[in-house]
Design brief:
243 residues, alpha/beta, 3-stranded antiparallel β-sheet, 7 helices, 10 strands, globular
Length: 243
Amino acid sequence: MQCYETADQVAIAAATAIRQVILEAIATHGHARIIWATGNSQLACLSYLIKDDAIPWSSVTCFHLDEYLGIAADHPASFRHYLKTRLADRVNPAGFHYLAGDCLEPLRECDRYNQLLNTAPIDLCCLGIGNNGHLAFNEPSVADFNDPVAVKLVKLDAKNREQQYHQGHFPTLVAVPAYAFTLTLSQIAKSQRLLCLAQGEHKRAIVHQLLTGPIDPTCPATLLRRHPHATLLLDTAAAPTPD
């Protein structure tokens, strides 16, 4: 765990760490494979990365963690849209493999993405933590540390859908998709390194649970404590108060 005074310092530290992983991976095996997170916790980090001329993006292949089912790539709430406009279009990586939320055969899409993920090791998976401890769309109700698949479809519970609506991602609650694709916890754990960001006072309670509670899928983010190369970056607002 690393703690910084401000959220911006967290973003700078995260961007620096990501650059280092990319450069090390390219030096070792000629290419880097990165899974990217979305959400507010990642915005400032991405803004620093796209300005970093030291990163050879032409040797980086990208993936993402999750996507709503039945949503077009240009929908403003689509995670494809988020990453295409904030990262891919800015740096032109070697490839960006997107989960196709609007595919016609969702189970085949899971299989297709599974094959892409497993053609070579993943060097880094970037993460954020939900207020209930979720990683990607691995909510406590569906999280499984030993999931037998790499990508799966999950039903979004009412609380999750309401949160998406109230954050302004969709015009009505009915418009929020009922299902989503997610990389599973077992797939996330296969990454060589994990880098998780948490900023803001609203994350303090779940960070405390992550660091001190049982390592259990009821708090999916406790997976970080089982991984040999996981780093948690916090600002002081998110850091638990010492007992």
